[in-house]
């Protein structure tokens, strides 16, 4: 059994705050604080440029990639960390389209995160191959996969509602129809067991700063199915993905496998933070995380429904159809979340009316869930949300 008391002690959690927003930005792992401080003073400060060879900087994208691989059911050497999720999606989509042959349809759904759709809209236009982005309702995806579809591009867990796609079944259907699959694991990696190899997915991307706790703007990751990497001509090519970056050849020759998905110089301080943060997963079983996450979220839903009739559950009620978050709808959701935050409960808000709470067993326990429900009850019962200053929208919600 995973010892969640041990993992909780690995994080800096401010006194008096219940943090149910680790699905948006994970908290600070103590090891990341120490690692970044050391990386700055000892490696950068003293080793200077020698750090690229002596401190393992050059290989960090692959070392970090291998640590993430374990959490998403991927083999070593199939994941590389770097860039942002949006950029990695661009790499995956352009590669997928070129592998897909003459078909023109890229299929996604209306539950996808907007950046994924933006990337697709403009990348397909830039490719100039007459590709079309087809966006259907999440429940219509399975029925729309057929042999006219080139690429299936989905986010497994809906960022707003927490609705969970059946990756295994959809990827299998894609494979049967000769469709290249891309999964965005932004709200899956570190949230629930993922089996990319078992599902036989072609590409996946995901975030380093959400459930993986790498810090604000931490590098993202990209996965390419074993054997597929060598068949990709990267559209976003750069010297770090070259076969021999320090040969300084004038012509691009892609490195083997996953390494060709690298582009430019990795952000070492951020990468080091993510590297240290990932050590929190040592000895952690994703099955235990999933079981605990369901216990926490089921209790949260029960408490909220008993205490707050004003709120409507906006997530699937069946925990097996949900990721690791619970969303509730409330007309004054933004102001209510501001009031909750002012009272020591941090969650977040997604327009137009969703209050979102993430459950992260590494550092959230049942006491936190009960305290969170008590705070939300107070916000509702005493109408603490009914204040003009809570309604004034900040830039980041
Ligand atoms: C959070 C999130 C992103 C974020 O992309 P960035 O490029 O890191 O800003 C992308 N896709 C999904 C599904 C997300 O939830």
From TrEMBL:
GO terms for molecular function: kynureninase activity; pyridoxal phosphate binding. This is Kynureninase. Belongs to the kynureninase family. PANTHER family: KYNURENINASE (PTHR14084:SF0). Its cofactor is pyridoxal 5'-phosphate. It catalyses: L-kynurenine + H2O = anthranilate + L-alanine + H(+); 3-hydroxy-L-kynurenine + H2O = 3-hydroxyanthranilate + L-alanine + H(+). It comes from the Bacteria. Pyridoxal 5'-phosphate binds at residues 85-86, 113-116, 155, 184, 187, 209, 239, 265. Homodimer. One of its GO terms (cellular component) is cytoplasm. One of its GO terms (biological process) is L-kynurenine catabolic process. HAMAP family: Kynureninase (MF_01970). The modification N6-(pyridoxal phosphate)lysine is found at residue 210. Its EC number is 3.7.1.3. Keywords: Hydrolase, Pyridine nucleotide biosynthesis, Pyridoxal phosphate. Pathway: Cofactor biosynthesis; NAD(+) biosynthesis; quinolinate from L-kynurenine: step 2/3; Amino-acid degradation; L-kynurenine degradation; L-alanine and anthranilate from L-kynurenine: step 1/1. Catalyzes the cleavage of L-kynurenine (L-Kyn) and L-3-hydroxykynurenine (L-3OHKyn) into anthranilic acid (AA) and 3-hydroxyanthranilic acid (3-OHAA), respectively. It comes from Aquibium oceanicum.
């Amino acid at each position: 059994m995973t010892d969640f008391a041990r993992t909780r002690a690995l994080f800096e959690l401010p006194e008096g705050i219940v943090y149910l927003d680790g699905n948006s930005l994970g908290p600070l792992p103590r090891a990341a604080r120490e690692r970044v401080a050391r990386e700055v003073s000892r490696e950068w400060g003293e080793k200077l440029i020698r750090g690229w060879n002596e401190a393992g900087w050059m290989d960090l994208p692959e070392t970090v990639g291998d640590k993430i691989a374990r959490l998403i059911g991927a083999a070593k050497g199939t994941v590389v960390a770097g860039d942002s999720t949006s950029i990695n999606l661009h790499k995956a989509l352009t590669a997928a389209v070129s592998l897909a042959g003459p078909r023109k349809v890229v299929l996604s759904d209306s539950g996808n995160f907007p950046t994924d759709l933006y990337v697709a809209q403009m990348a397909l236009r830039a490719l100039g191959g007459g590709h079309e982005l087809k966006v259907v309702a999440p429940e219509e995806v399975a029925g729309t996969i057929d042999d006219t579809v080139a690429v299936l591009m989905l986010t497994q867990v809906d960022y707003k509602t927490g609705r969970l796609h059946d990756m295994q079944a959809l990827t299998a259907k894609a494979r049967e129809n000769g469709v290249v699959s891309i999964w965005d694991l932004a709200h899956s990696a570190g949230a629930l067991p993922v089996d990319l190899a078992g599902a036989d997915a072609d590409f996946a991307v995901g975030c380093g700063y959400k459930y993986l706790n790498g810090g604000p703007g931490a590098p993202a990751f990209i996965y390419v199915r074993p054997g597929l990497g060598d068949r990709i001509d990267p559209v976003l090519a750069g010297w770090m993905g070259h076969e021999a970056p320090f040969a300084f050849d004038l012509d691009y020759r892609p490195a083997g496998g996953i390494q060709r998905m690298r582009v430019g110089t990795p952000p070492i301080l951020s990468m080091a933070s993510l590297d240290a943060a990932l050590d929190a997963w040592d000895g952690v079983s994703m099955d235990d995380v999933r079981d605990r996450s369901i216990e926490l979220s089921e209790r949260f839903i029960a408490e909220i429904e008993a205490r707050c009739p004003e709120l409507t559950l906006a997530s699937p009620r069946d925990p097996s159809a949900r990721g690791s978050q619970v969303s509730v709808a409330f007309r004054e959701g933004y102001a209510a979340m501001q009031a909750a935050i002012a009272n020591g409960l941090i969650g977040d808000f997604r327009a137009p009316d969703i209050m979102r709470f993430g459950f992260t067993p590494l550092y959230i326990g049942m006491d936190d869930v009960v305290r969170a429900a008590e705070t939300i009850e107070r916000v509702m019962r005493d109408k603490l949300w009914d204040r003009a200053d809570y309604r004034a929208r900040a830039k980041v919600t």
